[in-house]
Structure to design on (599 residues):
């Protein structure tokens, strides 16, 4: 791609189009040459996407109709059996409930805290950069390392209950109780990644023109009212973006569950990805694992479409 | 909302910020201090915020129990290869989708963009079978190839495209009039200008690879091939219970270097991520 451009009229036409007599328009024009460059530039990404994303997605459907036995080396067509199993799976209700609870809990808690932190950091206050660094720091801490420490803190005799004990409160066994296990997993994940959304909100808040607040001040609007009437509508594109990122991310949660609760107690923290992993890679039901993958994909797709629709209704303007 | 605040409000705000900072800072503090405690003091009551009898025993045990140095190297080199690979793939594709007109461009862009909707968790079963048939299970190839071309790289391509669309094109046009070819224009003119976007993409790609957990435990089975997240969970006693101080020592060694880089370059981290394409 490094050669000189071949202009159709003045360039070295003779090289590509040896046209004796009347000057003919050569086939190999600079436009075609540029088109070729375009295809070559996107080729690695395009071919990679086809091999490692699109093809596997098609294969998921194919595999969901089969049962693969790695040890016996058999791969048998089983028709709709895996889907029948899906309909009869008594765990599935609990799994979907855990998945939903985790996602809703994470999105609400994460966005609310991110917005609160961003608003606090957007004040005229010395040293906010230090706090911004502190709030953001867990984002760069290795996910499993962060989860292990929290697992350690949340043990029955761990640091959190130890600190609660010193003020005379008996803490629960966080990771073993039905309700507290889910709460713990959500909280651990929120503190890990809320810094990311906080930074996006902060950038959005800094883009809100100060004149708007001054005008509202003149009109005597109170701070809370200003926040809901001016700030929230103006940063709504960012709210939408962060909620999409957070929802899709919440459906991918795996390490935290595997390290903290292994899906328990019961199925109370068995989110879909963890269940999929158990079925496919612990119990070696690859066909059923593929079927669960389709359920996961359907949920991701449905939520994305839903949020795209909401954008039209709620989002104030597009940046 | 940047208005001048009264000293009283400022004091309240500082108080609120400090309380809010506890759950962000305390876990890291607790991780490092506990890794220095002897086993007997790990669950001591009242909790020791500062180890009374610090020792480095647990750090020694980390290397005795696992080929931890090798595992560290695995994680570092995989993350670096994935980062460089993603930058190359995404910068080229992002540039072409933003700057070059070619037939079928929009359709091809949609094909690539579909990758954003398909997280690798959805395709892990067929990916495992594909790599199994190629004899690449228990190698690092799946951990390198899938991120370079899968969902994370698609996001990178999208960010690069957004960046190049927003970048004024006069300089590149001038270069092309001067006779520079497409690749030379990209390499010598556009790429140096896209350093902020490349930085942001590099940071989140590195962190994504560094944090991968599902893929390593699915694909890898030999301890000397493990990556750090996977290795961290292997420090268990004969009953399967975690050896806390050893695990926390390994976790500290995993977390602290990246944290140090972050503190030094926090401006690039935070502002890079906030201002590059991600804003929508």
């Amino acid at each position: 791609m490094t050669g000189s451009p071949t202009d159709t009229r003045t360039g070295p036409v003779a090289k590509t189009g040896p046209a004796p007599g009347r000057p003919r328009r050569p086939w190999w024009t600079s436009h075609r040459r540029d088109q070729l460059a375009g295809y070559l530039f996107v080729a690695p990404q395009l071919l990679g996407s086809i091999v490692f994303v699109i093809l596997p997605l098609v294969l998921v459907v194919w595999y969901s109709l089969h049962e693969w036995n790695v040890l016996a080396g058999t791969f048998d067509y089983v028709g709709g059996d895996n889907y029948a199993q899906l309909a009869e799976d008594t765990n599935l209700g609990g799994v979907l409930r855990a998945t939903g609870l985790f996602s809703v809990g994470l999105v609400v808690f994460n966005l609310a805290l991110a917005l609160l932190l961003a608003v606090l950091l957007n004040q005229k206050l010395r040293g906010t950069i230090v706090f911004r660094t502190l709030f953001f720091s867990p984002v760069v801490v290795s996910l499993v390392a962060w989860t292990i420490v929290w697992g350690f803190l949340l043990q029955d005799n761990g640091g959190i209950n130890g600190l609660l004990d010193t003020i005379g409160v008996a803490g629960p066994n966080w990771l073993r109780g039905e309700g507290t296990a889910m709460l713990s997993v959500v909280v651990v994940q929120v503190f890990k990644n809320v810094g990311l959304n906080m930074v996006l909100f902060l950038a959005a808040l800094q883009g809100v023109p100060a004149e708007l607040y001054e005008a509202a001040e003149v009109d005597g609007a109170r701070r809370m009212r200003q926040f809901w009437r001016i700030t929230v509508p103006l940063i709504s594109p960012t709210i939408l973006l962060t909620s999409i990122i957070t929802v899709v991310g919440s459906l991918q949660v795996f390490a935290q569950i595997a390290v903290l609760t292994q899906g328990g107690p019961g199925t109370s923290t068995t989110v879909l990805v963890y269940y999929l992993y158990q079925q496919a890679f612990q119990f070696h039901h690859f066909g059923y694992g593929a079927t669960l993958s389709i359920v996961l994909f359907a949920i991701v797709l449905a939520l994305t479409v839903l949020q795209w629709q909401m954008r039209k209704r709620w989002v104030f303007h597009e940046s | 909302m940047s208005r001048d605040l009264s000293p009283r409000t400022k004091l309240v705000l500082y108080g609120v910020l400090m309380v809010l900072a506890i759950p962000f800072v305390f876990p890291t503090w607790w991780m490092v201090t506990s890794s220095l405690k002897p086993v007997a003091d790990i669950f001591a009551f009242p909790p020791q915020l500062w180890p009374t009898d610090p020792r480095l025993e647990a750090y020694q045990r980390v290397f005795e129990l696992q080929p931890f140095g090798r595992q560290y190297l695995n994680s570092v080199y995989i993350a670096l290869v994935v980062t460089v690979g993603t930058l190359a793939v995404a910068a080229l594709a992002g540039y072409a989708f933003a700057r070059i007109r070619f037939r079928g461009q929009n359709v091809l862009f949609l094909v690539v963009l579909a990758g954003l909707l398909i997280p690798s968790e959805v395709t892990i079963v067929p990916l495992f079978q594909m790599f199994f048939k190629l004899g690449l299970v228990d190698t690092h190839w799946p951990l390198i190839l899938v991120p370079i071309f899968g969902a994370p790289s698609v996001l990178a391509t999208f960010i690069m495209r957004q960046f190049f669309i927003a970048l004024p094109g006069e300089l590149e046009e001038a270069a092309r009039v001067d006779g520079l070819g497409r690749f030379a224009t990209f390499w010598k003119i556009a790429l140096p200008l896209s350093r902020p976007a490349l930085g942001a993409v590099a940071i989140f790609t590195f962190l994504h690879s560094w944090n991968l957990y599902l893929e390593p435990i699915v694909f890898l089975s030999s301890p000397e091939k493990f990556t750090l997240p996977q290795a961290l969970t292997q420090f268990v006693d004969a009953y399967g219970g975690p050896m806390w101080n050893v695990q926390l020592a390994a976790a500290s060694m995993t977390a602290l270097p990246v944290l140090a880089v972050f503190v030094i370059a926090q401006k690039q981290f935070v502002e890079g991520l906030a201002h590059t394409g991600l804003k929508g």
About this structure: Chain B touches chain A through 106 residues (CB under 8 Å). The first helix of chain B runs from residue 7 to 35. Residues 49 and 185 of chain B are 57 Å apart (CA to CA). The mean pLDDT of chain B is 89.
